Amino acid sequence: MDDGGYIIGVDLGGTSINAGAVPFGGGTVLGMRSLPTESQHGAKFVVDRMVGMIRSVIDDAKREGGFSDDAVRGVGLGSPGPLDRSTGTVIETPNLGWRNFPLRDLIANAIGLEAELDNDANAATLGEWWQGAGRGVRSLVGLTLGTGIGGGLVLDGEVYHGVSDAAGEIGHMTINSTGRKCNCGNYGCLEAYASGPAIAARAVEGREAGAASMLLDMVGGDFTRITAETVSEAILAGDGYAADVMRETATVLGIGVANLINLLNPEMIVISGGVTRAGDHLFEPLLAEVRKRAFRKAAESCRIVPSALGDMAGVVGAAAMFRIARFGPLDSPSPAR
Ligand SMILES: [Zn+2]
Questions:
Q1: Whether 9 contacts 319, CB under 8 Å
Q2: Which sign, positive or negative, has the C-alpha torsion 153, 159, 164, 166?
Q3: What is the mean pLDDT of the chain?
Q4: How far is the CA of 167 from the centre of ligand 1 (A)?
Q5: How far, in whole angstroms, is CA 200 from its chain's centroid?
Q6: DSSP secondary structure string for all residues of 258-309
Q7: How large is the average pLDDT for residues 22-46?
Q8: Model pTM?
Q9: What is the whole-number distance in angstroms between the Cα of residue 183 and the centre of ligand 1?
Q10: How far apart are the first and last CA of the chain?
């Protein structure tokens, strides 16, 4: 196989679009860029923005990497799902308001390159496995805590998609049968507690109930401006109430992670997203909950770690997904080479 050239990876999210040029054999991503999605302007706006970004990334790859015009192999697209990989269609994304949207072919035709589409969380998990925290492991679960909670499964070195491309919806694992209402319509999903907006909402509710905290001062007295990041900043500034909110978040996440460990016995779980900035305030109570609930043998053999690639994971993984779809299985080299 010719190992030269590069693949464009595009990570479409509800909040932002990231794109970059990923060398075919891995390594430094060129031309990395990020723009807000601004889906309120409609689907055509978002597609045009993605196409513009891809063109700019190709220009940068030529300039920075000395690549020729024909060095680009194609485009890997990660999008919120559910979606159909075979037709390249996004079936439904509540965050973008799209239904049965032929994203892959719209991008491929506009840019004149081959493209592949997969779920954004699958892509991020694949990226961490190929080039990030999960290098060299055989089985990995990825959890991305953002606008929602994305999940991805790499089992025995391959992304597990399920029979209809819907596997890995870890955010919609029920944690509490009579719990908080989720965006999906169900009650008590993990996402309804531990997504960014859910953490913010829980923090606001507690403040309204009279908890003493610096959170309100941090947002100029406006409850609606509290975000998960505000909660993380308040913790680092020593706010006890914010730490309580994070501990509750970690406990709920720990329940979900323990369920995953008991089900899959994975070698690693990678957690990404802005909330991981809370560091030990998140990971310590999470690990304590996992030890309480998961089978000991499985818990002891699973490493639970923060993402190594951050925002880059989805871009690297989308490119990896294109490579696998067109050129066959990929190895994840061990970092201790
Ligand atoms: Zn749900």
A1: yes
A2: positive
A3: 93
A4: 14
A5: 19
A6: HHHHHHH--SEEEEESGGGGGTHHHHHHHHHHHHHHS-HHHHHT-EEEE-SS
A7: 96
A8: 0.94
A9: 6
A10: 23
Q: What is the pLDDT of residues 218-268, one digit of tens each?
A: 988 887 888 888 898 999 999 999 999 999 999 999 999 999 999 999 999
CA–centroid distance, residue 70 to ligand 1 (Å): 43
Rounded-to-integer distance, Cα 9 and Cα 17, Å: 11
At residue 269, does pLDDT exceed 80? yes
| 58 alpha carbon – ligand 1 mean position (Å) | 37
Residue 49: pLDDT over 70: yes
Cβ proximity of 152 and 124 under 8 Å? yes
- Look at 57-66, 80-89, 207-216, 300-309 and tell me which has the smallest mean pLDDT: 207-216
Q: Give the distance, in angstroms, between the CA of residue 288 and the centroid of all CA atoms in the same chain.
A: 24
Residues 6 or more apart whose CB falls under 8 angstroms from that of 49 comprise 17, 35, 37, 38
pLDDT of residue 1: 47
| Euclidean distance between CA atoms 188 and 210, whole angstroms | 24
pLDDT of residue 216: 83
Q: Is 62 exposed, middle or buried (0-12, 13-18, 19+ CB in 10 A)?
A: middle
Instruction: Yes or no: say if 20 and 13 are a contact pair by the CB < 8 Å rule.
Output: no
How far apart are the CA of 146 and the centre of ligand 1, in A? Answer: 14
In this structure, are residues 117 and 50 in contact, taking their beta carbons and an 8 Å threshold? no
Return all residues near 53 (Cβ < 8 A) that are at least 6 apart.
10, 17, 19, 33, 35
SS3 letters across 16-60: EEEEEEEECCCCCCEEEEEEECCHHHCHHHHHHHHHHHHHHHHHH
Residue 174 Cα to ligand 1 middle (Å): 8
Q: Closest Cα to residue 172, out of 100, 248, 259? A: 259
Q: How far does residue 170's CA lie from ligand 1's centre (Å)?
A: 9
